[in-house]
């Protein structure tokens, strides 16, 4: 699914090393890329795969690698180089439970690693967080465009559940590689043009400082133009749940449940985790005083939410780590707990709940 | 209409294929569907289950803790999932392997001896398809005819002979479910 979307976005090079729960991607790519004249390499390690990605990106190709948490950790050095060299590449992390080898069940515990850069140095990766199979397809295609537009690595942060789940998907048409804007920085052999170089080693502090600030200006532009989120039932909400990916889907199920009980609860779902939708979350504090952050981890995105609201609203947290998949019922229970605790029921609703008359 | 169902058994029983067939059939009827498998790192003999949702509306959560239908293929799954069935739901059990008693009177219980039925049919591996036939007949969530069509688009229908056999397996399951439900009505 992710593989087909990548192929339709013009990805012709895939380098990876097997790890559950994302083996469906290399399995699919190993056959599909041959059909479209692409190249598939099962590398000897994650380090090798990410360095092959660097090479293909330098030559101007649309290139992707995928892995899962421990494998992504091994790739961090290469991702830092991609950022430093300003190379476009797409990396998908189908997150599993951690730390260490952890397990192969769905989790969201790599949020810090993904949104803070992950490797060494002052850099950012654009992080996209799909929450359905259709969105995984759409955001994968968008990831290649964003990577090229900003010359920056883009990470798709999925989880073991999205890696295994099946849903009907409508695929967009295959793009024509010839329609893409030409890249004037690629290293393709110096044939009668001035020579080019791509370097991440900048020994003079002042030169590196200029490079760092150049990256910052790029990151600012990404933040201004590409921050994306979904709002669900916010109009009359008195409490808002903030969740992304699979957790957001479970939260939606929970919200449907509590809405049927008369609780006015909405959802804000970040679709880009970096850049984080801080502004819309800050604006929420004008209409609600209660936020509930729900993650399949012990609490990572909650820090970004707290920073965004800057003390202007109460931020509660509920999480299940380690690959446990929370049910909509238990999330609904958490929502109603904080809802009642904050006294958000109005007179009429409250009377109904008590079975009396207003 | 939203119907959530959990199929459970051990690896090798075709548990995931059952769910896949149901989801595919629902999708071909223009419904929204999700198919969420869960299985251990091991394959044959390990636990395997999957959750399928078929709905006219957008499906919020593909996870369910109170499914409308639970299909149990072995004893450990009975212990784990029998209490989860929603009130007025259906509990289908593979009575060839499942012997535990279920003390619930608010659900319709449909025991189907799928292993024996499959053996009689001449193909032990068709037990899971027989169960899907029984599920469709008992609950009406999809029709046997729709299942028969969808079969051709799965691995169960790649060869004409196998397709024919699996279509018969669906009928065997449906017939058995009819008998069980009629007996219950007259009892």
Characterise this structure:
The complex is a heterodimer of chains A (358) and B (187). Chain A is α/β, with parallel strands linked by helices. Chain A folds into 2 domains: 2-177 and 200-226, Thiamin diphosphate (ThDP)-binding fold, Pyr/PP domains (Rossmann fold), CATH 3.40.50.970; 230-354, Rossmann fold (3-Layer(aba) Sandwich), CATH 3.40.50. Chain A is 42% helix and 16% strand. Chain A is built from 14 helices and 12 strands. In chain A, the strands form 2 sheets. A 7-stranded mixed β-sheet of chain A has the order 2-1-3-4-6-5-10, sandwiched between helices. In chain A, α10 (245-259) crosses α13. The radius of gyration of chain A is 22 Å and the shape is globular. The mean pLDDT of chain A is 94. With 187 residues, chain B is of the alpha/beta class. Chain B has one domain: 3-Layer(aba) Sandwich (Pyruvate-ferredoxin Oxidoreductase, domain 3), CATH 3.40.920.10. Helices cover 41% and strands 21% of the residues of chain B. Chain B has 6 helices and 6 strands; from the N terminus they run βαβββαββαααα. Chain B has helices at 15-28, 75-81, 114-121, 127-139, 144-151, 160-186, and strands at 2-10, 32-39, 47-55, 69-72, 90-94, 108-112. Chain B has a 6-stranded mixed β-sheet with strand order 2-3-1-4-5-6, with helices on both faces. The two termini of chain B are 30 Å apart. The interface between A and B is medium-sized, with 21 and 19 residues.
